[in-house]
Write a structure and sequence with these properties.
Blueprint: H1 2-28, H2 32-41, E1 46-48, E2 53-56, E3 64-67, E4 70-83, E5 90-93, E6 96-107, E7 112-120, E8 127-132, E9 147-153, E10 158-159, E11 171-176, E12 181-186, E13 200-204, E14 215-218, E15 221-230, E16 238-241, E17 247-249, E18 252-253, E19 275-278, E20 285-287, E21 290-292, E22 299-304, E23 306-312, E24 315-318, E25 332-336, E26 342-354, H3 359-368, E27 381-386, E28 397-400, E29 409-411, E30 414-418, E31 423-425, E32 430-433, E33 436-440, E34 445-447, E35 455-456, E36 460-465, E37 468-470, E38 487-489, E39 504-510, E40 513-517, E41 522-525, E42 527-533, E43 536-539, E44 559-562, E45 565-570, E46 573-576
Parallel strand pairs: 1-4, 2-4, 3-5, 4-6, 5-14, 6-15, 14-16, 15-17, 15-18, 16-19, 17-20, 18-21, 19-22, 20-29, 21-30, 22-31, 29-32, 30-33, 31-34, 32-36, 33-37, 34-38, 36-39, 37-40, 38-41, 39-42, 40-43, 41-44, 42-45, 43-46
Antiparallel strand pairs: 7-8, 7-13, 8-12, 9-10, 9-13, 11-12, 22-35, 23-24, 23-28, 24-27, 25-26, 25-28, 26-27
Length: 577
């Protein structure tokens, strides 16, 4: 009788279970982009998508494209979106007042792979043998070089201390020697290498035929992202270009922990920056977000420098294509000379392509910037006409103040466990407050123009307060970079010298906590006006670094300054542990 009763209960339940499986399967076969496009074609302003699992086929690599929309809401109610290829998922262009919320994005084929060191040259570490873990892709590994190769400690599943990221130029050869086993051979001996047998390795796979960045927003205003999670992606997570006051609330870039397709949990989320804003007319508002376990910076906000070929008063020739330049007629421009000194500002009244220019000045410019990554000189030239004369000459740089991300807010976010930096800002009139930054291989909070990348500019009127920075600056000492402290406000010119005072102005750093820090814990250069008040610093005696050798930093304590004026240092506490 009992068996009969159980049979009857099972018979009654099975149809419902089967029906549920059919419904879930049906949802899982729906293309997310098709659903959105259909709703938009029907004129819907509020698109409410039932919670489920959706895919994006992205034929020919084409993402979901939202163009020239206004006052539209898209809510996916906690849905999962799976892209068939590791490529750009969403493109938003020329839109205004969009609210996008409630979904995660993951790639069906991951854009990275991970393995374990199963054999190694224990003497010089000139080679490793790596076994790729089950479920992770091989891509073209063994035929082409991987990128952004990182070593993880198998005891913590986090980036290994006293190491740094290996890029393709490090390796002379990567060859397949077994079904999922590869031998990595280095070009040169690195005395600071300390990877050991059993360490985990994560590396970026080549992404030919795909588009970079998961979600791109361009030339759009007041786009509101809320509760959007990115678990994997081939480059940046959120990238905005030439936008105005977009907001990101409770968004995440983080690793997925419950992937049933892999034999060992993921160690990485995406391959590069979690969030990157460039050329914003009004900077982004990033609040209550989580950005972790990715391959580069957590938050970057900047615009572009352009190199001056020739300056003739109010006529300036630049080595760049004017069709791609991030400045417009009416913008206020800021000029910086080759020494890193701010020369002055002027309004742009005309911008055009120039056919005739000084070939001698162009050759000299190329030589002056030969040590930077951005030393390529484009064949096309942009000519600026200004409303006043500016005493700028060959080798100077210029950027737009009106497309520099001013007005940004970075508040109450949690970020870290990444190979690079926490918050890297080159914009003005902003706030960095209440953030928790943990386990960044390099600095936690940085204000710094970077001529190496031609990223502008000098920040002014920025408040950095109530942030907590822990366990940062743990990369191998061989970096020697100028951003050499958990909080770094620093500027280096193209000659690798500290820029003079006055580039940075009115920078307030107060009531921050820095724990388990290198010495120095804070760096201030090229500053005129500011205060460093009420910060609590704990220096670890066990962390010894020669970061900052480009600055010739000596053992001068927790706070190091150079070429700075009118800087108030008050009520900062320092402990040794």
């Amino acid at each position: 009788m009992k068996k009969l009763k159980n049979f009857l209960i099972t018979a009654l339940i099975l149809p419902f279970l089967f029906s549920e499986c059919i419904n879930k399967s049906a949802v899982a076969t729906k293309d997310f982009a098709t659903i959105i496009n259909k709703a938009l074609a029907e004129g819907k302003k509020k698109i409410n998508i039932p919670k489920g699992v959706y895919y994006m086929d992205m034929k020919d690599g084409k993402p979901l494209t939202l163009d020239s929309l206004k006052d539209v809401e898209i809510n996916a109610n906690g849905s999962e979106i799976i892209t068939r290829i590791p490529s750009q998922a969403i493109q938003i262009s020329n839109c205004e007042n969009l609210r996008i919320s409630g979904f995660s994005i993951d790639c069906d084929t991951l854009p990275f792979t991970q393995g374990k060191i199963v054999a190694i040259d224990t003497l010089d570490r000139m080679w490793w043998e790596i076994e790729i873990m089950g479920g992770y892709p091989l891509g073209s590994l063994g035929k082409s070089m991987p990128d952004r190769v990182q070593i993880f400690d198998s005891k913590t599943d986090n980036l290994k201390k006293n190491l740094y990221t290996y890029f393709p130029g490090v390796f002379s050869n990567v060859k397949k020697i077994g079904d999922r086993r590869f031998r990595f051979e280095k070009k040169n001996k690195n005395p600071n290498a300390n990877e050991v047998l059993g360490d985990f390795v994560v590396m970026t796979l080549p992404s030919r035929g795909t588009r970079p960045h998961t979600i791109i927003t361009s030339k759009s205003k007041n786009i509101q992202f809320e509760d959007v999670i990115i678990y994997s992606g081939n480059c940046f997570g959120f990238f905005e270009d030439q936008c105005e006051r977009n907001s990101y609330n409770r968004c995440q870039v983080t690793k997925k922990l419950n992937d049933p397709k892999v034999a060992y949990p993921r160690l990485r989320s995406i391959n590069a920056d979690a969030f990157h804003s460039k050329g914003a007319t009004v900077g982004p508002i990033v609040t209550n977000c989580i950005f972790m376990y990715h391959g580069d910076d957590c938050i970057a906000i900047n615009t572009s420098f352009y190199k001056v070929i020739t300056g003739k008063g109010e006529i300036i020739d630049l080595a760049t294509n004017f069709q791609r330049i991030k400045m417009k007629v009416g913008n206020m421009l800021r000029f910086v000379d080759f020494e890193g000194k701010v020369i002055g500002d002027a309004k742009l009244v005309k911008i055009e392509s120039a056919a005739e220019y000084s070939k001698d000045d162009l050759a000299r410019l190329t030589e002056m910037f030969k040590s930077t990554r951005e030393n390529r000189i484009e064949p096309s030239i942009t000519r600026l006409t200004l409303d006043r004369k500016v005493a700028i000459s060959t080798g100077g740089v210029v950027s737009s103040l009106d497309m520099g991300g001013s007005g940004f807010v970075v508040k109450n976010n949690k970020m870290g466990y990444t190979r690079a930096r926490g918050v890297l800002v080159k914009s003005s009139d902003g706030v960095i407050s209440g953030n928790e930054i943990i386990g960044c291989e390099l600095s936690g909070i940085i204000l710094a123009p970077e001529l190496y990348w031609m990223e502008a500019g000098f920040s002014r009127n920025v408040l950095i307060e109530n942030n907590t920075i822990k366990d940062c600056m743990f990369a191998n000492s061989s970096y020697g970079i100028e951003q050499a402290a958990p909080i770094s406000i620093v500027a280096i010119n193209a000659k690798k010298e500290v820029a003079p005072a006055g580039g940075f102005q009115n920078i307030i750093v107060r009531n921050n906590i820095i724990e388990n820090s290198t010495s120095p814990a804070m760096i201030f250069t090229s500053l005129d006006g500011g205060s460093v008040v009420g910060n609590k610093i704990t220096i670890s005696k066990d962390i010894v670094r020669n970061h900052g050798r480009i600055l010739k930093i000596n053992d001068s304590g927790a706070i190091w300054t150079k070429n700075s004026e009118n800087l108030i240092l008050k009520d900062n506490s320092v402990k040794q542990q």
